[in-house]
Design brief:
This protein is mostly helical. The protein has one domain (17-172). Helix content is 65%, strand content 3%. It has eight helices and two strands. It has helices at residues 19-38, 43-52, 57-88, 95-103, 105-114, 121-133, 141-165, 169-172, and strands spanning 3-5, 15-17. The radius of gyration is 21 Å and the shape is elongated. The two termini are 25 Å apart. 31% of the residues are buried.
Length: 190
């Protein structure tokens, strides 16, 4: 299933909307729909869904597992950092806050690497920074981290089954040879 839009009649390349794009749009819409009914802005779930939709199911599952690990580790380290700041009395958004937050990235980076999940390192750092910098004081640090973690996991929970249920390009084009040559998309010999 590909939608093709011709940009001009002078032979310019065609713009194609592929299955991965369609699945990504559906996943983000479902995140927004659920976020709407939960009364939240679904930023984390939408980002997670975008990152988890891959060209095939195997890559989607691997990305989802990595994202789950990174989310849990980042959420936990973000909460611990916030609790430390609140108990010690370091002013939120002060220069000292930012300095310590950045120095603490060293163990945050080390944890997933040491646990054997180096691919989760960037995601761990992102969630750590989002939790620590996103604290508004409206909720406790633990409530806020749980809410952001649940929102992220929701995006993964939406993306993985959606990507598994809808066909990928390899399933749609079973009878068409696959070519890595951009000038020869059918895979036929020249």
């Amino acid at each position: 299933m590909k939608w093709v839009f011709v940009m001009s009649k002078q032979g310019q390349k065609k713009f194609r909307i592929g299955l991965r794009t369609i699945k990504t749009v559906i996943a983000v819409f479902l995140c927004c729909l659920i976020g709407f009914f939960r009364g939240i802005v679904p930023i984390q779930s939408s980002i997670a869904a975008i990152l988890c939709i891959k060209a095939d199911k195997k890559d989607t599952i691997q990305t989802a597992v990595t994202r789950i690990i990174g989310t849990i580790l980042g959420g936990a380290t973000g909460v611990l950092t916030l609790l430390f700041f609140l108990n010690v009395g370091i002013l939120y958004n002060s220069l000292l806050f930012y300095f310590i937050l950045c120095i603490l990235l060293i163990p945050v980076i080390y944890i997933p690497v040491r646990l054997g999940w180096p691919d989760a390192t960037a995601l761990t750092c992102i969630v750590y920074v989002v939790v620590a910098m996103g604290y508004t004081g409206e909720l406790s640090p633990i409530q806020m981290a749980v809410e952001r973690t649940v929102d992220t996991l929701l995006g993964i929970i939406i993306a993985v089954p959606l990507n598994a249920l809808l066909p990928n390009r390899y399933e749609v084009n079973v009878n068409t040879p696959v070519s890595t040559d951009d000038n020869n998309p059918t895979g036929s010999s020249k």
